[in-house]
Design a protein that fits this description.
alpha/beta, UDP N-Acetylglucosamine Acyltransferase, domain 1, six-stranded mixed sheet, 44% helix, Hexapep, serine acetyltransferase, domain 1, acyltransferase, globular, repeat, 14% strand, Trimer_LpxA-like_sf, five-stranded parallel sheet, 271 residues
């Protein structure tokens, strides 16, 4: 048994950690046994557990869990990068969210993490020409999580969406790696144009609660958007913008705003 755990740790340390925490959760709260076993301990891999969790949350009378699970399994088998991105998202949530003290929590409880993983499968469907099914995933994720991410959007890895209520990300939006955003963020358009019409968010960006970024504009790497801001013009890299309409109010204050999660207008710690 110890040798098996050692091999698993070498191959997939994130999954090993999740399983260990699942056992600890069972010891602390036996009444969680059904949930923990069905969602984690019953599965041989992170991919299988993730497919089960997504399909369970998105299942409805219109589309049963079994079909959705087969879709997710096929997506992870065809494109292993989907599950690797999910691992990066999981680590991001654990590192950046002070309310998260275990890796198993986002998989079981955090709708921001779950919604992003549902989007990733929907995006796989979209890029494989199965657009109606992708839209079904989008619809159910919006209904289940209150997060509306168009399957045509392009989103990097290491994404953390805290609280995740009322998030909207449009069809031609691009979100880089290691981006953090809070609830009620909109990456939207400015009218009825049908071409490239949504924001392009660089790596390492922090987007505060209630911020609206509108139009085909660039938000530079490692910048910060203050809570409640309305961004209508390009944001240079490593700057902080605030206001309606948003204006540059200073430097970002640190190398990785999305990591420090410092939303105050003064400089980030350690700058």
């Amino acid at each position: 048994m110890a040798e098996t755990r050692k091999k698993l740790a070498a191959v997939d340390p994130v999954w090993l950690r999740i399983r260990e925490e699942a056992h600890e959760a069972l010891e602390a709260e036996p009444l969680m046994g059904g949930l923990v076993h069905s969602s984690v301990l019953h599965h041989k891999s992170f991919e299988a557990a993730l497919a089960y969790r997504i399909s369970l949350k998105l299942a409805s009378n219109e589309m049963p869990e079994q079909i959705l699970r087969e879709i997710c399994d096929n997506a992870y088998a065809d494109e292993p990068e989907l599950a690797m991105a999910a691992r990066a998202d999981l680590v991001a949530v654990r590192d950046r969210d002070p309310a998260c003290d275990r890796f198993v929590q986002p998989l079981l409880f955090f709708k921001g993490f779950q919604a992003v993983q549902a989007y990733r499968v929907a995006h796989w469907l979209w890029t494989h020409g199965r657009r109606d099914l992708a839209r079904f995933f989008q619809m159910r994720a919006s209904e289940a999580f209150g997060v509306d991410i168009h399957p045509g959007a392009v989103i990097g890895k290491g994404i953390m969406i805290d609280h995740a209520h009322s998030i909207v990300i449009g069809e031609t939006a691009v979100v880089g790696d290691n981006v953090s955003m809070l609830h009620s963020v909109t990456l939207g358009g400015t009218g009825k144009e049908e071409e490239d019409r949504h924001p392009k968010i660089g790596d390492g960006v922090l987007i505060g609660a209630g911020a609206k970024v509108l139009g085909n504009i660039k938000v530079g790497h490692c910048s910060r958007i203050a809570a409640g801001s309305v961004v209508l013009a390009e944001v240079p890299p490593c700057k902080t913008v605030a206001g309606i309409p948003a204006k540059v109010v200073g430097e970002a204050g640190c190398e990785q705003p999305s990591m420090t999660m410092d939303q105050l207008l003064q400089s980030c710690p350690g700058s």
